[in-house]
Amino acid sequence: MAVFKCKMCGGSLDFKAGESVATCEWCKTKQTLPKLDSSEKVNLYDRANHFRRNNEYDKAAGIYEQILNQDKTDAETYWSLVLCKYGIEYVEDPRSHKRVPTINRVQFTSIFMDENYKAAIQYADEKQRAIYEEEAKTIDKIQKGILEISKKEEPFDVFICYKETSNSGERTVESVLANELYNELTRDGLKTFFARITLENKLGTAYEPYIFAALNSAKVMVVVGTSAENLNSVWVKNEWSRFLGMIKEGQKKFLIPAYKNMDPYDLPEEFSHLQAQDLAKIGATQDLVHGIKKLIGDGVQSGVQRNDAPITSSNQDALVKRMFMFLETGDWKSADEYCEKVLDQDPENAYAYVGKLMIDLKIREKSQLGERTKQFRDNYNYKKAIEFADENLRKELYQYSEQVDQKRKEFHYENAVSAIDLAKTYQDLESAAERLEKIAPYKDAVQLAQECREKAIELKQQYDRKKAKKKKVVLIGIIGVIFLVIFYCFIFPYMRYNHAFKLAEKEKYYDSFLLFEKLYDYKDSKTQMEKLKPSILQNAEVGDTVVFGKYTADFDSIYDHSIRKDSHTAENGIRWKVLEKQDNKMLIICDLKLWSDLFNDIDEGTTWETCSLRQWMNNSLIDKCFSDEEKARILSTKISNPAYVSANGDVFDQGKNTVDKLYLLSVDELNKYKQLQSGDDMDGWWTRTIEWYYHDAYRQSNAFVVSNGSENGEEVDSEEHIVRPAMWISYR
What we know:
Elements: E1 21-23, E2 30-32, H1 39-53, H2 57-70, H3 75-85, E3 88-92, E4 99-103, H4 115-123, H5 126-151, E5 158-161, H6 173-187, E6 192-193, H7 195-198, H8 208-217, E7 220-225, H9 228-231, H10 234-248, E8 254-259, E9 277-278, H11 284-296, H12 316-329, H13 332-345, H14 350-361, H15 380-388, H16 391-422, H17 426-439, H18 445-471, H19 474-505, H20 509-519, H21 525-539, E10 545-547, H22 567-570, E11 575-582, E12 585-590, E13 595-597, H23 612-625, H24 628-633, E14 637-639, E15 644-645, E16 651-652, E17 658-660, H25 667-673, E18 684-695, E19 698-707, E20 710-715, E21 721-723, E22 726-730
Parallel strand pairs: 5-6, 5-7, 7-8, 8-9
Antiparallel strand pairs: 1-2, 3-4, 10-11, 11-12, 12-22, 13-21, 14-17, 15-16, 18-19, 19-20
Helix pairs in contact: 1-2, 2-3, 3-4, 4-5, 5-8, 12-13, 12-14, 13-14, 14-15, 15-16, 16-17, 17-18, 19-20, 20-21
């Protein structure tokens, strides 16, 4: 049976078959278990729990319902549906490190009255029931607190739903559009919920009470979007799906999708029955405001009152908690803002400096400091954290720094040992000795350094003797060089030039091309190469190499490390291996070490559809490397991205299907064409297959890298993996 993951943190759970309760060794949370009677059920639960942990409650609920159809007596399934309904998110308290529940989907109905909760209690055993009841008491208490706060909130006329910041932490276009709409609505006297302003005076507190109150009171919701990705982002969808749910329950509310610079067919499927507003049209905002006023009627509320009261030291602990929550999600900008708020109140707060150190290093968990490969001891924020830390925190930070030192020493030690084995000259041995001396007395570095020095002396003596002998044959060598210069500069090129024409006459077009390429500046070799390219393409068979496109010196990649060693060859024409032929088209894959890029420029969950590498390949790469005639030959291809099943049976969603001109092979396609791919000296290269893996109890994104024909996993923001684009082209 596949490994079952913790529903709180995603770490692997260790438990015996038949147990209904287990404790996660990663987050130390005691939790209930489902009936795990098949690998399929394990995979379904892991997938559903993954979505729930990422606040995608509707997706998770759909899978739980699927499990429930298989077994109506599984208490854990009913309980999981309760967690989705109430939007329960378990977060780590930065002080106690315990997982505590928060509510993201408050209901008017008590959890004790929920039918799924009642079913969970009915089918649970004694151990499960005790946990469910205790957890329900906690959730009920939190919910009552939220409802008590929300009751005090004034009602809103309009709720503006949008994505505030991008994945890089920058303000979105939607935020600007929403701001403009907010100004228009408030100017006309409509009380409008706009998170950027409405929640401004709620910093340091949970937002759910105020969002819940606004969702329930607002008569109209406007969903602002410029892309399908942003409209379907977790928290945006959480708001509009809750509002649509109220409409379906019979409440007289109206939802208006408002889009700009996107295809209306890319709007969420749930909006298909709604009248959308195109904000790109002249006067669209004014028309939208006019329509909203008609829906609301004449009973317009007074404008929004802002509260700019400053944050006081009384909520300093809450600010620190929020800081760590933003760090967990990789929202560096927000995390830094909260660090500064803490330091404004307490300039000697060690945890705030730890947070700023984590922002500098772009890490999400404090424990990841010990996983660094570069020392951070000289970092200003590290020094300040050490200065103001208590004994326990200081000891912990010292430990992380020491772990980095040990890794660095081991790295240099292994490199030195490898250099000794590969050493060919006395200089190589002297260099290895210097590396070992720098890390002494680590392991046997001192002894190895001494042995290197002795062997280096011996090799230098041999070198000096050989050098003396070479002086005696210098004159003979000069004469030989003169002869070779005459031969290779005049006689040999002439012979090869004629042979290249003979190869073309024998329809060995690619061989002829390669020979002209070697001659290059000799006579009209460049012209002959260009003449051969169409013939190479038209006569190629599966397994042959074709020449298509050209690397140019002004190619500007989105990454600094993109151009590989084969770029000089590619200036004469990029080489492609033919994988398949159909009718008048063929599938080709790049056969050179030209590009090495990140799969995605941010380390976060992604798919082929949303990764930055896809955008680069189908825009910059095409524009720079292919002529207009060649671009016309490149065919648009429907790319299927079915779920990937790993070797251990785990099922991983690959995102939506796409239509691309250039794309990466999947792992399955790789296996299909494996015998036709050279792979020689190709190092590691990307496929478009995505797999999720778990590290230190936290989910990261993982794409397969192919190395010399084998499959390996790698983080999506790993550097210097080769990009081998594939594409279908017409060759007639």
